[in-house]
Structures are given as structure tokens and as C-alpha cells.
Amino acid sequence: MFRSLKNIDSAYQQTKTLALLFMVLCAFVTGYSVYASQRSIRDAQGHIYVLAQGNLLEAVSHNVKDNRPVEAQDHVKRFHEFFFTLDPDAKAIEHNVTQALFLADESAKREYDNFKESGYYNNLIQANISQHITVDSVTINPATYPYYAKCYATEQIIRSSSVTTRNLVSECYLRDVSRSSNNPHGFLMERWHVLQNIDLSTQPR
Predict the structure, then answer these.
(1) Residues 104 and 79 sit within 8 Å (Cβ to Cβ)
(2) Alpha-carbon dihedral 83, 185, 154, 164, rounded to 10 degrees
(3) Which residues, 6 or more positions from 194, have their beta carbon under 8 angstroms from its beta carbon?
(4) Which one of 44, 59, 100, 138 is CB 3.0 to 4.6 Å from 82, fit for a cystine?
(5) pTM, 2 dp
(6) If DSSP states are collapsed to H, E and C, what string results for 46-93?
């Protein structure tokens, strides 16, 4: 009889141990499932799928600050392309300059007013001169704020009889502002001025 009671007690202890192990295992599986599901949700939130012309493309989200130097370079490039790419058409000139002025402060507006008062734009129109700019490089100093930027570019002045190539160097400071359709990168160029704008060569057409 005592042996039977001992066997029952031993079996009870084993069952109790197995039950505890099973509960621990269940808790571990449950915890891991919750962790895995939360990680999957976080990963899914970092991916956006875009349908373009029947193709499913994946876009991955990143921290905005990671791309600020690249955005700053493109902002400066975009400004110079609008401001210095001109055709002998008053409406085209006004459109390009207006787009450029969304990206800069009154320092760019002053330069535009100086060009306008000197008759620069009228000369382009009357002589059928086109002006095109190619931005070679933009250097940004992200260590200081506002960010200092320097632009190196090549201009071409296209006349009916010749093409003049110019070297243009300018500098400015970039301040963060709200993004908009007119200012997609969310920067404003301040204290912009041209450091150098000299003729390199003139080739007959």
C-alpha cells in the first residue's frame, strides 16, 4: 500500500513538472510569436508597393535626414538650371525665373532685378540668343547649419553666329523650410551670389 502511494506521489510530481514545462514552453512560443509578428509589422510599414504600368514596384522608406545632403545638391542644381537656362521668349524667361525664385530668398530676386534693369533679358529676346547651363558639381557642408553650398557650372551662350562657353561659380547657404510643389526639397537658398562668371571660349557656328 505504501509503495502504491509512493508511486502515485511520484507520478503526481512528474505530471506537475511536465505541466510546468509545458506552460513555460507555451509562454515562450507565445512571446516569440508576438515578437515575430511585431517585427513583421514594422518591416511591412517600411515598404510601400507602387503599381506602375502594370509592374509592382517596391519603395522602401528611409530617414529623411539620411538624404538631406543629396537633396541639398539637387536643390541648388535645380535653382541654377531654372535661373540660367533661358530662351529668347519673354514668357519662357518669366516662367523659369519664377520657378527659380521659389527656391531662394531676396538675394536671387536682387540679381534678377539687376539683370532686368540692365536690359539683359531684352537683349536675349531681340538677338535671339539662348542660354543653357550644365551644373558640373555642387559641394555641401552638412556639418554646419545653415548648410554652405558651392556650385560649379558651365554656361553656353548660343547666338546665330557663335557659341560662347562660360565658367560659373556661385555660393549660398541653405535653410530648411516646408516642402511644397514649388519647393519639393524643402530648402531655401540664402545669401546667394555669383563668385565667378567668365568667358572660356567662343566658337563660330
Answers:
(1) yes
(2) -20
(3) 111, 168, 169, 170
(4) 100
(5) 0.69
(6) CEEEEEECCEEEEEECCCHHHHHHHHHHHHHHHHHHHHHCECCCHHHH
